[in-house]
Amino acid sequence: MAYDLEEQEQLASLKAWWNQYGNLTSWVLIAGLAAYSGWTGWNYYQRSQAAQASALYDELQHAVETKDAAKVLRAAGDMESRFGSTTYAPMGALLAAKSAFDANDLKSAKAQLQWASEHGDEEYKSVAKLRLAGVLLDEKAYDEALKVLASGIAPQFAGAVADRKGDVLAAQNKLAEARAAYQAALDATDKKNPGRQLIELKFEAIGGAVPAANDAA
């Protein structure tokens, strides 16, 4: 006999189980293999995107160094459209914005900062908003600058936000409000921060009183 009685019973049980669950098991296995394949494919795609974005960022840096404004904006635009999900895209936008600002192309600087303020992680968005508010301040678009500073900036930038608000309010000659903003900036800025001295100078310039070191202690 090909099988003894016990083997025949085991085979019969296996067939019965397969008839009941075999199709489901096959689908589960196929789904698992597909998920694994998708996961490895996604990782490969992510690595490929990062590598290409890195190369394009190097081109952008070179264009900035050679002051090729057209190439800077072209590279930044390519990075945002093709690799917008990578870290390099908001980095590139911030770099392109500074290049445009240095070239007195405020329109392009604002466009790059606006893009960066809407993409990337919380830190990049916060930095972009602070810089965008600075450009708007230079353009005397005071209400718009304050609107940019009103939300969407990480808590760790509270001192920088208050400082920038003080600049905008001082430019509007709203000195009492500006003093309150600079005071808030000082309260949120560590005493060892090298930028604190500039805040104190601006605060005192509009009538604020910075406590002496021994008084503050």
Automatic annotation (TrEMBL):
Q: How does it sit in the bilayer?
A: Single-pass membrane protein
Q: Which InterPro entries match?
A: SecYEG/CpoB_TPR, YfgM
User: What keywords does the record list, in alphabetical order?
Assistant: Cell membrane, Chaperone, Membrane, Transmembrane, Transmembrane helix
Q: At the top level of its lineage, which domain of life is listed?
A: Bacteria
Cellular component annotations (GO), alphabetically ordered: plasma membrane
Q: Does the keyword Lyase apply?
A: no
Which residue windows are transmembrane per the record?
A: 24-45
Every copy of the Ancillary SecYEG translocon subunit/Cell division coordinator CpoB TPR domain together lies at 15-207
Gene Ontology terms, MF aspect: protein-containing complex binding
Report the subcellular localization. Answer: Cell membrane; Membrane
Classify the main location.
Answer: membrane
Its name, as the record gives it, is: Tetratricopeptide repeat protein
Q: What is the lineage of its organism?
A: Bacteria, Pseudomonadati, Pseudomonadota, Betaproteobacteria, Burkholderiales
